[in-house]
UniProtKB/TrEMBL annotation:
GO terms for molecular function: serine-type endopeptidase activity. Residues 143-191 form the Subtilisin-like protease fibronectin type-III domain. Transmembrane segments: none annotated. The gene is ga29420. The lineage of its organism: Eukaryota, Viridiplantae, Streptophyta, Embryophyta, Tracheophyta. It comes from the Eukaryota. This is Uncharacterized protein.
Amino acid sequence: MSCPHVAGVAALIRKKYPTWTPAMVRSAITTTATARDSEGRAIADGGLGGRATPMAVGAGLVQPRLALDPGLVYDAGEQDYVDFLCTLNYTAAQVRLFVPGFRGCTRTLPGGVAGLNYPSFVVAFGGNGNGTGDAVVRVLERTVTKKNEKKSYKVAFRSRGMPKGPRGKTVMRFGNIVWENDVHKVTSPVVFIWG
């Protein structure tokens, strides 16, 4: 039932904000979702038991009221996605499947594929050794004071080594980047992968 619920919430957001792009609607839904169920407990992973990770539930349970007033949204337009595909070395013929009339890549995303303005992150580290397994995240505090103000920020993810896990296997850890004030809490899920 998640697809009809999310589609309904997206329709409500589009009604309230008719000029928002699809990326902004997705951002509002994603960044206001919660990893807790309707009774305040951590969402359980029905297939594996224990607490569900973003790999099982994405951003979590949709919260329509919060999605209608997210406080902050990530936006990306068609050119951003074209630049993303070009960064992934898609050919002009491949991009034309999504963008009729596309003639060829003229630019890529600054910073590589991680440069797409997306409300969630996957960070892949190389996987050798048995370090402490910490992922260090540094974000400078940003203040948005005006309605519809656009800001940018950079996040640096660094690993102090691979976390302990089965030798030769991929290891994953999870976290969030949170922007909040007295009214809003915008949460971007982060998946860290070693291996």
